[in-house]
Design brief:
CATH superfamily of the largest domain in chain A: [2Fe-2S]-binding domain
Shape of chain A: globular
Number of strands of chain B: 29
Oligomer: heterodimer
Helix content of chain B: 25-40%
Distance between the termini of chain B: 90 Å
Radius of gyration of chain A: 16 Å
Largest sheet of chain A: 5 strands, mixed
CATH topology of the largest domain in chain A: DNA polymerase, domain 1
Strand order of the largest sheet of chain B: 3-5-1-12-9-10-11-20
Shape of chain B: globular
Helix content of chain A: 25-40%
Radius of gyration of chain B: 27 Å
Mean pLDDT of chain A: 95
Number of domains of chain A: 2
Number of helices of chain A: 6
Chain lengths: ~170, ~775
């Protein structure tokens, strides 16, 4: 057993876990953060993506002990209170979901993708970078649309913020 | 209590029928608060299950030593067939051939033999590996390709459809072609795997939270396995993380195992299959071997056709009989056959028992039809699209007699001509056809191909008793509405559509209608949510319930205010009674105070349909849904790799209840159909082991596989020929076969290497390997003989 301590969605949490406990199980079972899903059990479908120190990570590929000391954001921590994060809002607005099971992972991947491309995204990049996230329902059309829309909103918002700062 | 302030001046309610509403759970999906079964808080002391699966495809169980399993850490119990209190059977067909746990013999690699019940899932799964099982291996049949459709074992009785004299017509035809096609199966790959959580109740009672498309059937089978009446078992599901047919019958085994363990140990028990186990131990879309012979004239008019649809049922019947039937029901696709003979053969093999998958054999039937069209087109040297159009059923309202299906139902609502004409125009078919020819002339290695394929899909269960539905609607004294019906939500937006129907009936805003979990305790004896029928059936049942309550409200208002009933009119969020308007909420409150019943059970059964299987005749479908797709691909002829450059789809959902939801179904269905026919390859080795049992090796389409240009539209002019719910049409399955356009576009690109002189006979899935082999074969055939 190991003691892990991390900041999850802005809250400091700790717990004793078996060394082999995966981060996803720690989040779901110890912290009841069940918005992060397990789809394929083998690090391929991306339903379990969370942010570890700001970067998208498949939480079924990482041990809880590896994440100790890190800051983790899950789908539950993305919104600002009642206000959805722009990526969440875009998925909702653009019908970027059907059964919804892959959605949290898609949104976490998309948020990281947009962060890494602050000047905006094109469709080819979105489609290529989304290869680690599987959706069986939508055919991806509205998911790609949602990410492009969110990227546009967020780069506008960051530009207007930058302009104000200047 | 929060006071609700409705808009009493509104000209229209928000969220009625024929409006583009967002999925009712969209907000929860994006916030991570939508609860799937694995997300529910587990009752204290919940136990977990790991399955022990067969390691051989066929054999007798000589010795099953589970002693090490029992003594492993955390293990509470190990269940085998001997622990089943009722029948050791979850056969949905009543054939008694689907054991919960193998008894005496195993019939496929991956068949459950025992279940470990442990304190944690990890412990249960680890312990399951410690079993020592001795088998006496028996010869195993892994593939249907070489089986005899007359002599070899079938799991259900085959169907034959006959109209006219196909053999004579083929013999007398000026031209004839005969061939065989291999068509692969498909794993559902729902993102949420099979899962059940059983919570024991008092006496013989148990509640099973189960990711199932057929709660009533799950209930009945759990009762059958426990040996208790159905009234002791409640099955509930709020939502599934995808179903696609894979949770129509395949959910039952996990539900049964969870229930047995929960009752035995008086603790909650969860069964969640690991992805590899899910893919190994649960059924899939049937792979087919299709034999065809067609007689036609020099113009390309089909005169007679003969089909044998052999399907790989796997080790048990499950739904294989009806799946084979539906393949035959769709072997005509949109084409009139003057003479036809078609038979199915659901063949026994030592592989997992195949099951429902979006389309239920229909897509396989259509793929056979489109292969025949291709054969005719190459034989007479015309564009396949010309041959398609030549052989279409007569359009709706036309005086002709080219409208009888192979099962003797008259096609009365055919709109395929208009759909294809509009799609040819919007996709710019003729110009692109010329451009592709020019491109191919100038491109040595990359070849382009294009195809436009039509779809006609029959709507109704062919099992007549499944065409019924129930709903339960309550109006509470504050005017808010609780809606429940027999359909299940798997992402398709069914609950939303039914809620729109209820909102429309009461003329209240959509947010006043509460969507609730499907449960056998509220609506009994329901059909599975399958056959695309969810909104058609449950929408009608919910409408019936709402209308009963509305009538009572109207009668009450008429009496109270002393006006004729026809002067009670339901307006948005209010009711006009004579000359005055009362808010819906106020009227409901008054009705409650006057002891008016504000709850109703609704019911619907599809009219008109009948089917005589023995005779192969009937009005099997209430109506048909239509559509067409045009896809263009580019193929690297050195490697067989390809890209879908563009896809255009025009699809008919009648007067759509919700276009946004329907377009999503068309997009998703097309991509899923494309995956089935291109990259998704199920591969069993000689020992009957499925070697593609995870997304590492089983390739469903990714975002990068989507067509570069993707235009999807709904016909805005069509409406259902029959009085369906608000004249809308079913949308779940019909778009899936649009994936055929990609298979045929690939075939067209392949054909270009032999100057379009040889039919490529490209089998499916058309993986890059298979495309490359077809290219090599055509090049060899086209080469001048030495």
């Amino acid at each position: 057993m190991s003691e892990v301590t991390l900041v999850v969605n802005g809250r400091k949490v700790s717990g004793a876990v078996e060394d082999r406990t995966l981060l996803v199980h720690f989040l779901r079972e110890n912290l009841n953060l069940t918005g992060t899903h397990v789809g394929c059990d083998t690090s391929q479908c991306g339903a379990c993506v969370v942010h570890v120190d700001g970067k998208a990570v498949k939480s079924c590929t990482m041990l809880a002990v590896q994440a100790s000391g890190s800051t983790v954001t899950t789908i539950e921590g993305l919104a600002n209170g009642a206000d959805l994060h722009p990526v969440q809002a875009a998925f909702k607005e653009n019908h970027g979901l059907q059964c919804g099971f892959c959605t949290p992972g898609m949104i976490m991947t998309a948020t990281d993708m947009i962060r890494r491309h602050p000047d905006g995204l094109d469709e080819a990049t979105v489609r290529a970078e989304l290869e680690g996230n599987i959706c069986r329902c939508t055919g991806y059309h509205n998911i790609v649309k949602a990410i492009l829309a969110a990227s546009k909103t967020m780069s506008k918002a960051s530009k207007s913020k930058a302009n104000k700062a200047a | 209590m929060t006071e609700h302030t409705p808009n009493l001046k509104a000209a229209k309610i928000t969220g009625g029928v024929a409006t583009d509403q967002r999925h009712d759970s969209a907000h929860k999906h994006v916030a991570g608060t939508a609860v799937y079964i694995d997300d529910m808080p587990e009752p204290a002391g919940t136990l977990h299950v790991g399955l022990g699966l067969s390691n051989v495809a066929h054999g007798t169980l000589k010795n099953v030593d589970l002693s090490e399993v029992r003594s492993a850490p955390g293990v509470v119990d190990v269940l085998t067939y001997a622990d089943v209190p009722g029948e050791n059977d979850v056969s949905p067909s009543g054939m008694h051939d689907d054991p919960v746990f193998a008894q005496g013999k195993v019939q496929f690699h991956g068949q459950p033999i025992f279940a470990v019940v442990a304190e944690t899932r990890e412990q249960a799964r680890r312990a399951a590996r410690l079993a020592k099982i001795e088998y006496e291996e028996l010869p195993a049949i892994i593939s249907i390709w070489d089986l005899d459709t007359e002599k070899d074992k079938q799991v259900a009785s085959p169907l034959t459809l006959t109209r006219g004299d196909a053999a004579a017509a083929i013999a007398a035809a000026p031209r004839r072609v005969k061939g065989r096609m291999k068509l692969g199966g498909q794993d559902h790959f729902y993102l949420e795997g099979q899962i059940s959580l059983a919570v024991p109740g008092e006496d013989d009672e148990v509640t099973v939270y189960c990711s199932t498309q057929g709660p009533s059937e799950t209930q009945h089978l759990v009762a059958h396995v426990l040996g208790v009446p159905s009234h002791a078992v409640t099955v509930e599901v709020r939502r599934m993380g995808g179903g696609f047919g894979g949770k129509e019958t395949q959910a039952n085994q996990c539900a049964a195992i969870a229930a047995i363990a929960a009752k035995k140990h008086k603790r909650a028990v969860k069964v969640r299959l690991d992805r590899d186990e899910d893919m190994t131990a649960t059924g899939k879309r049937h792979d087919f071997a299709i034999d065809y012979e067609v007689g036609f004239d020099d113009e390309g008019n089909i005169l007679g056709v003969d089909y044998i649809f052999a399907l790989n049922a796997g080790f048990s019947a499950d739904l294989s009989g009806p799946v084979g039937d539906r393949a035959l029901f769709h072997c005509d696709n949109t084409y009139f056959y003057p003479n036809v003979h078609a038979k199915s053969a659901p063949l026994y093999t030592n592989t997992v028992s195949n099951t429902a998958f979006r389309g239920f054999g229909g897509p396989q039937g259509m793929v056979g039809a489109e292969r025949v069209i291709d054969e005719v087109a190459f034989a007479v040297g015309k564009d396949s699209l010309e041959i398609r159009k030549l052989n279409f059923y007569d359009p709706m309202g036309a005086p002709g007699d080219r409208n009888l299906t192979p099962y003797h139902q008259k096609v009365e609502d055919c709109i395929i001509q208009r759909i294809v004409a509009e799609l040819e125009e919007s996709a710019d078919y003729a110009r692109r056809r010329r451009e592709i020819a020019a491109f191919n002339n100038n491109s040595r290695f990359i070849k382009r191909g294009m195809a436009l394929t039509p779809v006609k899909f029959g709507i109704s269960f062919t099992k007549t008793e499944s065409n019924q539905a129930g709903a339960l609607v309550h109006v509470y004294a504050d005017g808010s509405v609780h809606m429940n019906h027999g359909g299940t939500e798997m992402g398709q937006g069914l609950h939303l559509k039914v809620a729109q129907v209820v909102a429309e009936e009461f003329q209240i805003d959509l947010d006043r209608v509460k969507i609730t979990a499907t449960t056998t305790a509220k609506v009994p004896n329901t059909a599975p949510t399958a056959a695309s029928s969810g909104a058609d059936l449950n929408g009608m049942a919910a409408q019936d319930a709402a209308r009963q309550i509305r009538k009572r409200l109207a009668a009450f208002a008429a009496e109270k205010y002393q006006v004729p009933t026809d002067q009670v009119v339901f307006l948005p969020n209010r009711v006009r009674v004579g000359n005055q308007e009362i808010s819906f909420n106020d009227l409901v409150k008054q009705a409650y105070l006057n002891r008016i019943q504000l709850s109703a059970a609704g019911f619907y059964k599809t009219p008109k349909i009948h089917w005589d299987r023995a005779k192969g005749r009937g009005h099997a479908f209430y109506y048909f849904a239509y559509g067409a797709a045009c896809s263009e691909v580019s193929v690297d002829t050195l490697t067989g790799e390809y890209v879908v450059e563009r896809a255009d789809i025009l699809h008919d959902t009648g007067r759509s209840l919700n276009r946004a939801i329907d377009i999503g179904q068309v997009e998703g269905g097309f991509i899923q159909g494309m995956g089935w026919l291109t990259t998704e390859e199920l591969w069993w080795d000689g020992k009957g082991r499925l070697r593609t049992h995870a997304p590492s090796t089983y390739k469903i389409p990714l975002a990068s596989d989507r067509p570069k240009i993707f235009n999807v539209a709904l016909t805005d002019w069509s409406e259902a020929y029959e009085p369906t719910i608000h004249r809308s049409k079913a949308v779940g399955e019909p778009p899936l076969p649009h994936g055929m356009s990609v298979l045929h576009a690939l075939s067209d690109a392949v054909a270009s290497v032999a100057d379009h002189k040889i039919c490529p006979r490209l089998d499916a899935p058309a993986t890059p390997e298979r495309v490359l082999m077809a290219i090599e074969r055509l090049r060899a055939e086209a080469a001048p003989k030495k």
